């Protein structure tokens, strides 16, 4: 098996990260760092820190000169970071030593690497935003179309009270809508430029560090944090946390669908399902299973990221290396979860007959709570609960429906609508429609 499923010729379609995959390649990393070097030189030329003619030459070269990522490998193995080799290779490829001497003026490797990463994370969040909007639109359609379709609610894996399929879908969608609404603040509070020099003091910039950082931020379209964040991994951790929460919500959706699609329930049909190599009757919930697996992986990687979020002193190589090991995988797996859910959601088909059959097969026990509240109109609530519990035990003992036993035992009680699932869903239909309306309003 390949080291990463996202790079695997065998597994990449099962865990498809879509367009996000192109953001986490060696070529994309090199390109982003060259863009930062060019923008840095341009800002320094504007502020008179390096000759303007050299700044213009470096900026143009950063957009035109390609560097082979493989050429950086030996230097990274020695130095632990790619920037020294990148700078050396860039200077050589420029073939203009009078200008090349000003490349990377006063910056440190972490400035270039972190800022380059933020450029790619900006693109990643844009892809997530588009994917979330598409997924939410599909879920909103499902919620609206099936707002009135009753299904058995379950708590602790046991039958509870009636809900609707639409409200069940809305429960998946609401936290995704929350995540979408958080994106503007996440971008503002995390997509930051990094420019602080060797030990985070900016001493190399001759008193113009703050002005230069602001100019670089403007040139790249990133935020200016107003400080060094070399040893403050908050921006990266906030993005990782947002991605992990998204994967977690999608994992919950996948897990629910696995349960709904299992043979003993068969309450939903998936538009795409997998077959078995030996059992021809099987329709395996492949996409929901991928969602759950990806969520588990992302949450595990987030825990590793949190552990690396305590860098020692002004810079910590081990903590930084840990980010490199896990953060790209976290980003790609979260993206794969979103891509999987986006492809799956429009094709979900609830099986209404099977959902309705649950209420019959449960012998009316899903309406026990409703019966106890109706009965509480005639006697104290504790007595009503005790009476209904007694009737429920009789249902289990005799196999007779709760409605029949209630009619015999409580002849004076109005049971109209009590055992009709459509009339016992409470606010479920309204909640489903409210979710659909909220999505339409974005």
Task: Give an overview in words.
- The chain is mainly alpha-helical.
- It has 2 domains: 5-353, Fumarase/aspartase (Central domain) (Fumarase C, Chain A, domain 2), CATH 1.20.200; 365-418.
- It contains 16 helices and 4 strands.
- The protein has helices at residues 26-46, 52-64, 73-79, 83-94, 97-100, 109-145, 165-190, 209-220, 234-261, 286-307, 317-344, 352-361, 368-375, 381-398, 402-409, 428-440; strands at 150-155, 158-164, 268-269, 349-350.
- The strands form 2 sheets. A two-stranded antiparallel ribbon has the order 1-2. It has a two-stranded antiparallel ribbon with strand order 3-4.
- The longest helix has 37 residues, at 109-145.
- 44% of the residues are buried.
- Residues 363-436 form the Adenylosuccinate lyase C-terminal domain.
- It comes from Pseudooceanicola antarcticus.
Give the fraction of residues assigned to helices: 55-70%
The assigned CATH architecture of the largest domain is Up-down Bundle
Order of adjacent strands in the largest pleated sheet: 1-2
Unreliable segments (pLDDT under 50, ≥5 consecutive)? 274-282
Note the total helix count: 16
Radius of gyration: 29 Å
Number of strands: 4
The chain-level structural class is: mainly alpha
Principal-axis shape:
elongated
Pfam families: Lyase_1
Domain Adenylosuccinate lyase C-terminal: 363-436
Protein name: 3-carboxy-cis,cis-muconate cycloisomerase
Family: Belongs to the class-II fumarase/aspartase family.
């Amino acid at each position: 098996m390949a080291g990463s499923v996202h790079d695997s010729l065998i597994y990449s379609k099962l865990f498809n990260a879509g367009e996000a995959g192109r953001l986490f390649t060696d070529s994309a990393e090199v390109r982003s760092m060259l863009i930062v070097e060019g923008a840095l030189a341009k800002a320094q030329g504007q502020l008179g820190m390096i000759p303007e003619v050299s700044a213009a030459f470096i900026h143009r070269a950063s957009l035109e000169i390609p560097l082979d990522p493989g050429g950086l490998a030996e230097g990274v193995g020695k130095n632990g970071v790619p920037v020294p080799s990148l700078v050396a290779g860039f200077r050589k490829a420029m073939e203009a030593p009078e200008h090349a001497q000003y490349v990377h003026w006063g910056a440190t490797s972490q400035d270039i690497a972190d800022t380059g990463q933020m450029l790619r994370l900006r693109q990643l969040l844009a892809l997530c935003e588009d994917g979330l909007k598409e997924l939410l639109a599909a879920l909103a359609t499902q919620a609206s179309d099936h707002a009135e379709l009753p299904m058995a609610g379950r708590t602790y894996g046991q039958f509870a009270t009636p809900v609707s399929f639409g409200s069940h879908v809305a429960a998946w969608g609401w936290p995704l809508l929350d995540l979408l609404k958080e994106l503007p603040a996440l971008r503002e509070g995390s997509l930051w430029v990094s420019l602080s020099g060797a030990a985070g003091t900016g001493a190399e910039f001759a008193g113009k560090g703050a002005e230069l950082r602001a100019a670089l931020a403007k040139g790249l379209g990133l935020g200016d944090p107003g400080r060094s964040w070399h040893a403050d991994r908050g921006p990266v951790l906030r993005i990782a946390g947002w991605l992990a929460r998204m994967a977690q919500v999608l994992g919950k959706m996948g897990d629910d669908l696995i349960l709904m699609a299992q043979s003993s329930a068969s309450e939903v049909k998936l538009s795409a399902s997998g077959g078995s190599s030996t059992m021809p009757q099987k329709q395996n919930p492949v996409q929901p299973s991928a969602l759950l697996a990806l969520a588990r992986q992302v949450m595990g990687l987030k825990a590793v990221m949190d552990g690396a979020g305590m860098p020692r002193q002004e810079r910590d190589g081990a903590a930084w290396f840990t980010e490199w090991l896990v953060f790209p995988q976290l980003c790609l797996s979260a993206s794969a979860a979103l891509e999987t859910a986006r492809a799956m959601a429009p094709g979900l088909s609830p099986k209404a007959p099977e959902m309705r059959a649950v209420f019959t097969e449960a012998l009316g026990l899903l309406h026990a709570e409703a019966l106890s509240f109706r009965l509480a109109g005639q006697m104290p609530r504790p007595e009503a609960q005790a009476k209904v519990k007694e009737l429920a035990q009789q249902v289990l003992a005799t196999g007779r429906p709760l409605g029949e036993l209630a009619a015999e035992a409580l002849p004076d009680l109005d049971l109209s609508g009590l055992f009709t699932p459509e009339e016992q869903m409470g606010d479920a239909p309204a909640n489903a429609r409210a979710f659909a309306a909220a999505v339409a309003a974005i």
